[in-house]
Predict the structure.
Amino acid sequence: MWLLRLAWALAVLGIAAGSSPGPTVPPPDKASIFADLSSAELRAVRTFLMSRPELGLSPSRGGPLAKNTLFLVELLPPRKRLALRYLDQGGPRPRRQARAVVFFGGQAEPNITEFAVGPLPRPSSYRPLRFKGGRTVPFAARPMTQLEYELLHRTLAEAMEPLYRLLRDATGFWYHNCSQRCLTFSDIAPRGLAPGERRSWLVLQRFVEGFFLHPVGLEVLVDHRDPDPRRWAVQRLWYNGQYFSSPQELAERYERGTLAVARLAEPPLQQLFSSYEPRGRFATGTPTEVHGAKVCEPQGRRYHLRGNHLEYGGWSLAFRLRSSAGLQLFDLRFNGERLAYEVSVQEAIAFYGGHTPAAMQTKYMDAGWGMGSVTYELARGIDCPETATYLDAHHLYDTDGPVRFSRAICIFELPTGVPLRRHFDSDFQGGFHFYAGLEGQALVLRTTSTVYNYDYIWDFLLYPNGVMEAKVHATGFIHATFYTPQGRRYGSRVHSHVLGNLHTHLVHYKVDLDIAGTGNSFETMDVRFENISNPWSPGARWVAQLGEPGQGWEVAPTHMGLPTVLGDGPDPAPIPRRYHLAVTRHHENEPTSSSIYTQNDPWEPLVSFEGFIRNNETIEDQDLVAWVTVGFLHVPHAEDIPNTATPGNAVGFFLRPFNFFDEDPSVASRSPVIVRPLDPPTFSRLEIQRWTPASPGPCITPEPFTYNGTYRQE
């Protein structure tokens, strides 16, 4: 096993020896083996499983927590071996199957079981899926459900009754029996300090627009492990820097007048600091009341989309939007040659520091919050250009049927604003020999994940020169806690009673590269300096840079991120937080580096990435997978109000051809412009060569902005 730890090493997955068949582009219908389940297929799987008496399934919503429910249904991708046989060798089409996650909470020994259900579109059988090492999923590791949140709300409302006067007097809001002036809460994970626990710290906030920035100084620890909510209990409270054993103790301290009360000002009805309403003016007075620059397609779209098959320039790929973790590309090819079998988002994590118990406990692992299922509507002209193609998504995640998320994905061609390449060839006498340039453009495949306070914008960009970029922007509301003087060590005071807690973002990708076949090798190029003698000037010396470049595709992170040391706290072992890049052999029982169960059981994770790399396997001339971790440290500041802005908060990586082609493959583009003088040195006549129309023509269609924003069960 080889792990890359060098910040300045060049990572190249090289070509194995031997020839490969000529490149071909598969027909679009073949991409459908990777397509997400349709609404009809999701409904068919649910209907079939609900009809099986031995499973004893009940509806997800309503009723008791101690019951058997269907939590998640999504595509179970075909095994790679079978998919390649179908794509490349004319083999049989793989059976279409679903992955179904069932919570068996209504039995003596509750557990979670995953099933393969098929064949689709008319399922008739199911079988349990086995995890690596024969592991089982403990019931306490399950993600939170809407029902559990409703029961948690009831528990908290009852517990907060003794604190009505304190909350009303200090905040103007309260929790139980409220209508307009209500408190709400955000919950923290991991939920406890050891396996099997399910204890959540809840941060109480005023329920106003942008409530994430309105903590009131009260945090409550609730034990909700028992399947019977009547046995749930508040174990601890933290208020304004002090701990209390019960709500009654806190209420008594307030009534006796011995409590240090944090009194909050009344929030304004307009221009609340956490809202997007304009306030203030720019000093220059330049107009902002008119539309800015827009993306246009003057001669129409230059990409083809059929189902889940996308083509652009030399690129072709299949894509899907997993409810569990987000965007996933399959069969990524350039000029018909497969570059990668799979490129996909695996996990997004954020480790926080803080003085309050909730802040110090926060270690978010967003696959455990349904990162791929919270893909809400993209706004035309803001989230994506008006000219983009918008696609709906269907999720069955903690619901009693498929839910359609309108405009969850967008596809558009983006002018990069910088030439892909250009040169001005000066004659150094006031003229030139030629000018040539190729405008910069890329095709963007985008979705978003709104995981409570944070919004992630996920992009895959395809460039004409064979470069692919994976990128994620972080925006949305910061995860904030109540300000105390002791908290200044852990962040910035971004408002009067609000601390923006310091945290590290880490994002993990799987890159299953198949370069000229599945037999690949991995190497790094270390650049070093050498002091050598000058062969044409005896006695002189110079310092030269040396490196031995290979051939293949380069994995180049745009931001390495920071290694994270967690001490004695929960160690998210499935996340390769220690490695910027790790390369392993492909195994069918290692499809992902994390899971939806990691968030609530990071101590004994079902999927442990460390297990992937400790088997000491050879990675020479093998089917290899690169696991890429990128990230950044976020020290919140006042300018994160109301939301974190995208500039400076983006990370990702490039896949770049490295000595793979004879020349830049973008020479096949018909978009360059070449200018040559016909009568130097006067330069009164020019030859302008271009292969596109001389004028782009009108750009924008006068359609008004519309937005729906609903996502409903069908």
